[in-house]
Amino acid sequence: MASVPDAWLVDGFDKASERFASAGSSADDAFRALFECVAWAGTINERLRERGNSSPELQGLRFVRNRVIHGHLHGPDVAATLKAVSAHLQKTNVG
């Protein structure tokens, strides 16, 4: 079975990131773009894990993705969790 090319996954993440950056003050647009970012990141992380080559950053984004998809994070909680993951990665000299 053929899989989606890696470049398509990265391009999807990049375009969702651009939508997030340009969402302005619209919380709805920002949340949808952020949700899409973490969904793409989760897929990229799974692809790399299959190859034994993941990163702590992608694992952190996958954690956020799982929390959002399974209903444990809502709206502003997503941004707060992403900040916490980022702070942890910086503290451990990974990010």
Describe it for me?
The protein has 95 residues and is mainly α. The protein has one domain. The protein is built from four helices and no strands. Helix 2 packs across helix 3 and helix 3 runs antiparallel to helix 4. It is globular, with a radius of gyration of 14 Å. It starts with 5 loop residues before the first helix and ends with a helix.
Helix-strand makeup class = mainly alpha
Mean pLDDT: 78
Main sheet, how many strands, which sense, barrel?
none
**Tally of alpha and pi helices:** 4
Runs in which pLDDT lies below 50 for 5 or more consecutive residues are: none
Radius of gyration: 14 Å
> What order do the SSEs take from the amino end to the carboxyl end, as H and E?
HHHH
Number of strands: 0
Domain count: the total is: 1
Portion of residues in helices?
A: over 70%
Gross morphology: globular
* Beta-strand content estimate: under 5%
Note the gap between the termini: 35 Å
